[in-house]
Design brief:
Layout (H helix, E strand, L loop, with lengths): L2 E3 L3 H8 L12 H9 L5 E3 H10 L2 E5 L5 E6 H9 L3 E13 L4 E10 L14 H7 L13 E5 L14 E5 H7 L20 H8 L12
Parallel strand pairs: 3-6
Antiparallel strand pairs: 1-2, 3-4, 5-6, 7-8
C-alpha cells in the first residue's frame, strides 16, 4: 500500500490528482495533518487520504425558503438529514458515504425543514477573508507575493481596523506608503474597500464547494 509523506502536501496533491474522477477539492492540508498526527503517525495511506478529502468537502445549508444560510461539513449535513431536520436538495456527483452495509450519496446542498430566524450574518474580519476579497493581490501594484494588510487611513492618524479601512498590500507597497494616505503617497486605490455580505462573499470570493451551489447564491 502506498503512503504519503505529510510534510510534502504539494506532492500529495500531485500524486492524487490522476486517480480522482473529479478535480481534487481545495482543502486545508493542516486538517489532514492534525487528524493523522493525533494518532502519532507520520504516513497516510491512499484510502485514508481519499476519505479525509471527501469528508473535508463543504455543504451549503439553505433555510426552508431556499435562501442560503450557512456552510457546514459533510458530517453535520448528514446528521441533520438523518434526524429529519433537513432534506437533501442536491448531491455531490459520484461521491458516497459508506458504512459497513450501506452507502449514501454525499450531500452538496441541504434545506432545513423548518424556517430559522437568524440575525444579520456578517463575514468574519481576518487576514484570509481580506485576501480573498482583494483576490489575493496587492491593491496597489497587483503583486501576489509577500502580502500583508494595510490601513488606508493609518492607525497613527485615527484609522480603524475595519473592512472599509483595510486592503491587501505587498510588503514593498506597504513600506512605500508608510504613514500616509493613498492620495498623499500617490498610490490611488483601484476601488473603495468594502465589507462583503455573507452571500456575496460566498458567491464572489470564497471557494465554491460545488457547481450545484450557484443557483442559490
Amino acid at each position: 500500500m502506498k503512503h504519503f509523506d505529510l510534510n510534502k502536501p504539494k506532492r500529495i496533491f500531485c500524486l492524487c490528482a490522476p486517480f480522482l474522477s473529479k478535480p481534487l477539492p481545495k482543502i486545508n492540508v493542516k486538517y489532514i495533518k492534525v487528524i493523522w498526527f493525533a494518532k502519532n503517525k507520520s504516513l497516510l495511506s491512499y484510502n485514508t487520504l481519499f476519505y479525509l478529502i471527501r469528508m473535508a468537502r463543504k455543504v451549503l445549508i439553505l433555510n426552508s425558503d431556499y435562501r442560503a444560510l450557512s456552510v457546514c461539513g459533510v458530517h453535520k449535513a448528514f446528521l441533520l438529514v438523518y434526524l429529519n431536520k433537513a432534506e437533501v436538495v442536491s448531491h455531490a456527483e459520484n461521491q458516497f458515504l459508506r458504512s459497513i452495509s450501506r452507502s449514501f450519496q454525499m450531500p452538496s446542498v441541504i434545506r432545513l425543514t423548518e424556517y430559522v430566524h437568524i440575525p444579520y450574518k456578517g463575514v468574519m474580519l481576518n487576514r484570509q477573508n481580506l485576501f480573498k476579497r482583494d483576490n489575493n493581490r496587492c491593491v496597489y501594484c497587483g503583486s501576489r507575493h509577500d502580502l500583508t494588510l494595510d490601513h488606508v487611513q493609518p492607525r497613527s492618524r485615527g484609522g480603524k481596523t475595519v473592512w472599509t479601512n483595510l486592503v491587501t498590500a505587498c510588503k514593498a507597497c506597504n513600506s512605500r506608503k508608510g504613514d500616509h494616505t493613498p492620495e498623499e503617497a500617490r498610490m490611488p486605490l483601484p476601488y473603495r474597500p468594502f465589507k462583503p455580505s455573507f452571500i456575496v462573499f460566498l458567491r464572489e470570493f470564497a471557494d465554491i464547494g460545488d457547481e450545484t451551489w450557484y443557483p442559490f447564491l
